[in-house]
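Researcher: Structure prediction, please.
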Amino acid sequence: MALETTVIQDKLTEKFGDNVNGFIQIKDIFTFEAAPDSLSEVMGFLKNDPLLRFNFLTDVCGVHYPDSEKDRQFAVVYHMHNWYDNVRIRFKCFLNGDTPEIATATEHFLSANWQERETYDFFGIIFKGHPQLKRILNMDEMTSFPMRKEFPMEDGGRTDKDDRFFGRTQDNC
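Model: Predicted structure follows.
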């Protein structure tokens, strides 16, 4: 018998109550929100519950929502996969814009190590308890986090580009 989304939702709400919410099916991925301070417990439950068995962490990534209220300006998104029933889930933990911090997932999945380092490197999200949280792709000397939306997508001072070739002129009549 396949693992139904109603079973996942019921088990999570029974165990965690208001710390999990916003359940929705988006295409073929069941999605919900989890309180950031309950991340470790939620992830451990999803992995170790004998019925749920989400035993593979597919992805960890960050998102920056600069126009949202202060306590929802960053999100860490987790994708997990149950290989037995071939079911995937996604959940988000929203973080405060002033101090984007969350517990590391490396205690449950060693593969989270590099994914959290990449998220830190590009968004500046601190993963508390991470064994070696440092930049992974950008230079160690960088003081900024380039995937935050406060940075322009391109350098306005470049002279080697002609906007006409990118459809960005007013005289396209």
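Model: Residues 61 and 77 are 5 Å apart (CA to CA).
Researcher: Thanks, that helps.
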